[in-house]
Amino acid sequence: MIKVAVCGALGKMGQEVVAAVEASDDMQLVAKIDIASSEMYRTIEEAARVEEIDVLVDFTQPKSIYENALYCLNNGIKMVIGTTGLTDEQIDNLKKLSAEKNTGCLIAPNFSTGAVLMMMFAKQAAKYFDNAEIIELHHNQKKDAPSGTAIKTAQLMAEANSDMAKGNCAEVETIEGSRGGTSYANIHIHSVRMPGYIASQEVIFGASGQILKVRHDSMDRKCYMQGVLLAVRHTFKENDFVYGLDNIL
Prior knowledge:
Elements: E1 2-7, H1 12-23, E2 27-33, H2 44-50, E3 55-58, H3 62-74, E4 78-81, H4 88-101, E5 105-107, H5 113-126, E6 131-138, H6 148-160, E7 181-182, E8 188-193, E9 199-207, E10 210-218, H7 225-237, E11 241-243
Parallel strand pairs: 1-2, 1-3, 3-4, 4-5, 5-11, 6-8
Antiparallel strand pairs: 6-9, 7-8, 9-10
Helix pairs in contact: 3-4, 5-6
């Protein structure tokens, strides 16, 4: 049995992970961790003193995820990270630490298999188009922008095409930020935060006489659980560092 701890257990995603782990035949939920609770472990350190943890799944906050990851990897606890907001430098540091400590770590901006396929399709399309932009839409309680999924998508597209804004004229924003943020390969990312959404993303490709749209919509957080459990099983077996669920599908 894989002994799993869930950090951020009271959050919407955390509650789904707890239920998925409890329903899994090859996993045992050994700790629920949430700083907002007085009825469960409040910190990873507190849980680790009492429980044997094989893999910790983290769905907390951007401001705490890096410190959580440093503690786990430095103390031999394997991690599956669903919390977004890590910088490129922080991800690189965690990759080095994972190798140094020989402790598995998997970071996934998105655990939905459909969203992962959307990112893979976008990378393929980037080979054949010179212009693209990303619109990501999330609920209004999501604190980081752009989303980790949008950033990962742009990174994948940039691997296939180094400039996705060829031929654009010199732009002047009369309202700052109107064109969104410029990311890898000059891909503009537009972030929408609004009640009613869970997580959606659309990648728009343009060329003379044609438009291609690749879109994914999450209607329920349960759609992420297959990917989370897949990530837990991989991380339990391996000591590698993985960024993106697409690398283990």
